[in-house]
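G., the chain you wanted modeled:
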Amino acid sequence: MIKCSYKYPSIRDGIKTEVKNKIWFTKGNNRVPVDLMNDSDYKDRITYNFTESSSSFLTIKDLKQRDSAKYKFRFITNQPGGAFTGLPGVTLTVLDPDLRVQVRRSETQTELKCESSCDQIKPPSYVWFNKEEKMEQQISSIVVSVRDGDRYSCSVKGHDDLRSPSVYAPESLSAKLMSSGQITEGRSVTLSCSSDANPAAKYTWRKKNNQSVVSTDQQFVLSSILSSDSGQYYCTAQNQLGEKTSGLVSVQLTCESIWFNYKHVLVFY
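Predicted structure as tokens:
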């Protein structure tokens, strides 16, 4: 609710002052304002209340981030030049609730919790979405069984357009050999793994037919490669919502051949 108190002379030049119109506005200017009652952005969301003590109250329902603006009150009287605007106005800033989904995973279940950075006296009701479709739950924490392609987000009830970023298991996993040209012994070779995931994925590299982890970095570097390093490698991207394994990347060493030329010299005695 936004309030404005105003005063005006009851009589001017022998004429009793009467207030003919009272409006609130954010658009236009002081001479040609756009009454919020006629502004499509506020349709069915605002009410005016006026008191006998010359106070005006503006109430905005279903507050949206785009409602951030400078609000001014204007009243028009029957007096010549008797139109007045309260300056500088009241600045309203609607903060982004900065919603986020916290993921907690145990051996038996995955729990999602909708959290906001805003201080709230009364805990709000939340709405959950999976792949843009609204879910039935309207509580802050839910337990889910994650399937491929699932993307979960949340919003405060009544503000579906202000959603949290989605959380989802790793997708679009790619494993590549970054080094170009022939791979020879002693050379440095880099394998890179990437994916799209939220929360961010952690990576592990393994060699085919050997289940032990050879690297836990997103980029696996063989700084001085040996012939025993030849083979096929793959990476796994994992977060609290699931994991995905890449295809195989081949690392093959090329043997260098060294040719020796001998000159046969005949010596006669």
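The chain has a mean pLDDT of 86.

Shout if anything looks off.
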